[in-house]
Thiosulfate/3-mercaptopyruvate sulfurtransferase (Natronorubrum thiooxidans), 267 residues
Amino acid sequence: MDESVVVAPDWLATHLEDPQLRIVDVRDAWEYDGIGHIPGAVSVPFDRYRDESDVDRGTLPGADAFAALLSDVGIAPDDTVVVYDDTHGVFAARFVLTALEYGHDDVRLLDGDYSAWNRAYETTSDTPELEPTSYDPDPLTRGESPLIGFDAVEDALERGSLFVDTRDKHEFEEARLPGAVRFDWREAVDDETRRLKSEAELEALLADDGITPDREIVLYCNTARRISHTYVVLRALGYEDVHFYEGSLTEWLANDGAIETGPVDEE
């Protein structure tokens, strides 16, 4: 796994004293305060970087709002940021995607979640002292960003891109984009260790569904949360031509996009 994208608990444990390391806990505030957290972590609950009020912007909070959030918790543009949750990384991955979109170069997902960390390392209830920064965002341009919208999705369908649906089977059968394959985002996680499966296992699983690095890939789910995890996993594996349909099926259906329904042979 590319350590510039995903880091193991061992890596994080050996870098806790790095003055440019910032750890972000995206669980609910009561979990951060009541259950404990990784030493040095700041609390940024998931709902603080999710905006459902602007349909044109999907669930992204906006560059200025996100920059203000990072400033409040003492994060500077050149800091190394490691993010975790306690739900196998799916909410943390959304933070990673958001930070990348708004120009933070060094943001990484913790391989495993709080429970995985807690099995091997100490946690704390101490809240770190925060010194606010003045964070200036540098959002990716249209050509740089992996995010695409409805029109670009239509174009991708026409040129035969591989659409990957990361939802549950019953959701997939109810409605999906034409020709899509299903890769449940949780397939990437080992239930016993709570960490990502090995690189070889992941590559084999993806290849079984035709999800290979030579394909142009478009990810979608319902509201762009679950695809965040799969997007980070693919980046960590070295996939380069990966697009992220931020509007996902919610926008697609609202615009009367073509769909398929019913069961498919996933063997």
Q: What stands out?
A: Residues 6-120 form a domain with the Oxidized Rhodanese; domain 1 fold (CATH 3.40.250.10).
